[in-house]
Specification:
homodimer; alpha+beta; Glutaredoxin; Glutathione S-transferase Yfyf (Class Pi), Chain A, domain 2; four-stranded mixed beta sheet; 7% strand; Glutathione_S-Trfase_N (chains A, B); Glutathione S-transferase family protein (chains A, B)
């Protein structure tokens, strides 16, 4: 049985969950309190991070490496284009979200508001929350600029870049930190991706102590 | 002409330089003061980071995306194995260095000691330097553990994972922050990779105000 060790609001885990669901891989989800760094968990994931995917008897870690593995072993439906330049653009945007957006926004909002409480690390630092709330505007504008030229983020087909972006934005939407009124084309893009069957499991997530807002799972938000 | 916008000690730029050199792509190196974020540079690299590779008339950014592009367009000599599991392991280790090692070690030593001065951001924070000097020991031990089981970091062939690791370690070696006496197999591995023709340009780097130690370019260090 394929098994994913994850936490529900992690954007890295969500990117892998979306990829698995799009490729119709049935997976057992196991919540992992990775911050407790149990020796058993560290054997599976030396970096001490989620997601970890158990598949074909092996433990794979690092979300981008896992998604590339899934793309190589289950090619259909494709989440990467065929042309090297277009593949480079997909990977650039995955790194944009998993590195830059994560550093400037996700870690400043989600981690301050949710992870700190779950891990017993105290209260949000308001300086960080303010900075994240400011920076997300720039990123939404960048998405909007991309979507003026393309149907999906990396081109005219949906790719892993859309999943990387939607993974971060959906986690922030769970805590009402995305202003969907900022640009219509970003909202339209998110509505398209949110209505895919692959998104269902993510919209059903519930984190104890953090009930999602009504619009979170609403396809007509 | 293929052109790489870079800074000499950036491990991300060095990973791309090693890949280009190994694949025998002639490249013009252009130093980019990326931290000044000139509008012209931001047009080429919206994330405001180096490396940026100008190739076939396009500007590519994000080091891992660039290296995957080079592997796809110039397959020989191969820097990625053929099996999906083995490719996943290469990408896991690239992420290990470019994410975890970078966060725990490179940013705490190289950026404190060198980048801050170059960018006019003041003096090293001794707390960070201490933390980086402590954490690098754990990483060297992890490398040593991998090399007990494998000829190269990700398996029995040299791959991009070796270049990712060597890129970080060579930048730190430039400021004498690597204890090569900690484990013999790590030292042997570095000696092997350092003696490759692809490494020559990196060993010739000179950063004004930061002369390298004598052992830096010495193949018999």
């Amino acid at each position: 049985m394929t098994r994913l060790y994850h936490v529900p609001l992690s954007p890295f885990c969500r990117k892998v969950r979306l990829t698995l669901a799009e490729k119709k891989v049935e997976v057992e989800l196991v919540e992992e309190r990775y911050w407790e760094q149990s020796p058993e968990f560290l054997r599976r994931s030396p970096a001490g991070k989620v997601p970890v995917l158990k598949i074909n008897g092996r433990f794979l870690s690092e979300s981008q490496a896992i998604c590339e593995y899934l793309e190589e072993t289950i090619p259909e439906p494709r989440l990467m284009p065929r042309e090297p330049e277009a593949r480079c653009e997909v990977r650039r945007l995955c790194a944009w979200f998993d590195d830059k957006f994560h550093e400037e926004v996700t870690s400043k909002l989600l981690y301050e508001r949710v992870n700190k409480k779950l891990m017993g690390q105290g209260y949000p630092e308001s300086r960080n929350v303010k900075s994240g709330a400011q920076k997300i505007k720039f990123h939404l504008d960048y998405l909007s600029w991309l979507l003026e030229q393309r149907r999906w983020l990396a081109g005219n087909e949906m790719t892993l870049a859309d999943f990387a972006a939607a993974a971060h934005l959906s986690s922030l939407d769970y805590i009402s930190d995305v202003d969907w009124n900022r640009s219509q084309n970003v909202k339209d893009w998110y509505a398209k991706i949110k209505s895919r069957p692959a998104f269902r499991s993510i919209l059903a997530d519930q984190v104890p102590g953090f009930p999602p807002p009504a619009h979170y799972a609403d396809l007509d938000f």
